[in-house]
């Protein structure tokens, strides 16, 4: 039993432990877990250790279908810059090996931020402290378990593919999560979104 599972049991929350066979040489640990368990990648959250200005460490939970936006992470902590901690820092501060870092049962209590997309699901999967082991729990239990605070942290890894057409030509917006389009500055509720290529700009 890992420290993460013990922490969940001690808190008396409702959770499930899921096991899968971890590949020996896999690198995308979160994607591997989503595929093996047949779970939507938006519901599987990876645990990242981030170093802020002044060398302070914090933890960020983001979906494996998305990437941590360092500018947003820094803004949430009230600092100018943030970057991923080194493998050594992550392992020493949490007590877990990379690929199995869990937000629960860590060696050190670090400030924890959870991407707000977690609130859209009744249950999410997080690492149980070892590769091949996941915990399914309610996002609402994270504040109790690790003092997790919901925040806007992540951006989509990639935009959905479009069928190739000769006309019209499309170009992708640089910020798929922008509330206002960076190209036309019009409000849009289609996330992510694309726009027609500007004919005037194309002729230049």
Distinct helical segment count: 6
Spatial ordering of strands, largest sheet: 5-2-3-6-9
| Estimated radius of gyration | 19 Å
Top-tier CATH class of the largest domain: Alpha Beta
Question: What are its keywords?
Answer:
single chain, 204 residues, alpha+beta, YbaK protein, 2 domains, 3-stranded antiparallel beta sheet, disordered C terminus
Question: Can you walk me through this structure?
Answer:
The chain has 204 residues and is an alpha+beta fold. The chain folds into two domains: 3-156, YbaK protein (Alpha-Beta Complex); 159-204, no CATH class. The chain is built from six helices and twelve strands. It has helices at residues 3-11, 29-37, 70-77, 87-94, 142-146, 199-203, and strands at residues 15-19, 45-52, 57-63, 66-68, 82-84, 112-115, 124-130, 133-137, 148-151, 154-156, 170-172, 194-196. The strands form four sheets. Strands 5-2-3-6-9 form a five-stranded mixed sheet. A hairpin with a 4-residue loop joins strand 2 and strand 3. The protein starts with a helix and ends with a helix.
């Amino acid at each position: 039993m890992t420290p993460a599972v013990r922490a969940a049991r001690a808190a008396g929350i409702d959770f499930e432990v899921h096991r899968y066979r971890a590949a020996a040489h896999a690198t995308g640990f979160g994607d591997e877990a989503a595929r093996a368990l047949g779970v939507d990648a938006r519901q599987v959250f990876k645990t990242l250790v981030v170093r802020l200005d002044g060398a302070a460490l914090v933890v960020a939970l983001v979906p494996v279908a998305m990437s941590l936006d360092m500018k947003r992470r820094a803004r949430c902590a009230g600092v100018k810059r943030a970057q991923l901690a080194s493998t050594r820092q992550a392992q020493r501060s949490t007590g877990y090996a990379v690929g199995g870092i869990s937000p629960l049962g860590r060696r050190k209590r670090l400030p924890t931020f959870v991407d707000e997309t977690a609130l859209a699901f009744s249950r999410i999967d997080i690492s149980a402290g070892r590769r091949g082991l996941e915990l399914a729990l309610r996002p609402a239990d994270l504040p109790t378990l690790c003092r997790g605070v919901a925040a806007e942290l992540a951006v989509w890894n990639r935009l959905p593919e479009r069928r190739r057409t000769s006309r019209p030509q499309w170009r992708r917006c640089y910020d798929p999560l922008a509330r206002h389009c960076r190209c036309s500055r019009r409000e849009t509720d289609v996330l992510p979104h694309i726009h027609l290529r500007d004919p005037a700009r194309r002729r230049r």
